Here is the input.
Amino acid sequence: MKKTIVALSAITALSTSSFAANISQEDMMKQIEALKAQISALENKLGATENTSKANKESLEKMMKGDVAISDARFKKLEKKVDIIGNTATKAKIQSGGDNLKWDVDFRTQVDNIQYKKASGAKAKNSNLMTNRLLLGMAYQPDENTLFRGLLSYNKAFGDTANHSQSNTNPGYADFDWVTNENALDNELKVKEAYWLYKDKTLLGSNVPWTVSVGRRPSTDGLGINMRANQPRKSPLSHTVNVEFDGASAKFDLDKITGVEGMWFKFCAGRGLTNAKQRFSMDGLDYAEDESLNENVDMFGFIFVPWDNGQYSVHTNYAHAWNLIGYTNPQLGAYQGAMAGAATPSDMMNAQSLLQFNDVGDIDLATIMFKAEGIGDEISDYLDDTKFFASYAMSRTTPTALGMLGSTESQTGSSFWIGINAPCPISPDTARIGIEWNKGSKYWRSMTYGEDTYAGSKIAARGTAWEIYRNQKITDSLEFGLSYVRIDYDYTGSNSFFGAEGTPMTMAQSRLMGSDPVETAQDIKAYVRYRF
Here is the structure.
């Protein structure tokens, strides 16, 4: 009876003229708060009523039986108004909390000291490369099942280049679609991520929460790299895949039906290169397949987490990519000869035209990683707040007759990667320090072109790389960071494509071939980062 009287009182309050069709959201929310106060007061009063006389109780019972002047029709009308205002309140809550585009800002100003030592002993450096990087994130969620996310990017060195070509693509690949947002280019704002996502709590009646998503993927700064970047992980394991691409994914949470803690599985597919002709082709065949070019570069794979209890977890990643691109030895020879005699920018452009991508074969990539969010069980507060990961990855080529990585036979490479991230002993409340080490074999080949570094992808190194870093929070939105990276290459071709330019040679072998490759690279950087 108590609940019914409270409901009746609520209906009476809601039946007033304040619920006209033109009510504003602000007024409506104020009235809802007032209604809550009235209901609370009525509940308190009703509690006191329980101690009233029998006559009062009988009077209340008569009211509930309809012996008062409130007809069933009137009651139903008021009940309908309650439903309407309930729906309006829900819509208002969505409007104020999720049913509009939300923006966030990630702005970083960075100074890098980059130094290279070549096999001959020659050195090159840039002691103060200054860059600004702006990431504008956006999200829109109109309901519980659908979501849109986007990320716009601006990444540019201070000033213009000497030849007024900040993109540095003549020749070069700084604006290549796989890495366009990780390199210091020009003043343009580019799309780094843009995708829609649908999610549901059940799949075909089974207790399997799932999601499906299509668009420009969140495929950089995945698990591993995210610790150094001091941000949540994105989709793939970054030991093998850290590159921008367009595609789709479907994720299934399996822990409830398997009973295995934290188990989930995710399909991924994407396209890294299209051979469609350009718009306004001279032959009129706009966007038709260009038979003179190699096939589309596509990738398919999965991410599988067999176990994750919140502290310890195991992560696996497999990917297969088709029709990868590269150059042949004759092309490289002709290009190098033309570049040696190039005296003008026009000569350089002519030399660049000698290079054309070829379909050189396929590749398989696999990763397994163990991760700990805290070491041990309350051994110490410091270990409880320490993160650790160890990752092993393999790559295997399947070349065409043109050869991959300088060989017409299948070649297998491998890489180890270990990292630890812990509170800084000097100021544990505001700073964290990290140490990472990775080593790649002769034929190691990753898809980590999008790694956010200026001295080349350390994960791709055919050799040994070290990094020591420190991140410190200054305010809730402002962060200061320092990092030192050193890469010692055992073999050439670590940051190349998949053809003859990716041929692994020792420094001595490369010198005999007339080249002078980079033997050691290091990058010391400091940055201030604002996130809101």
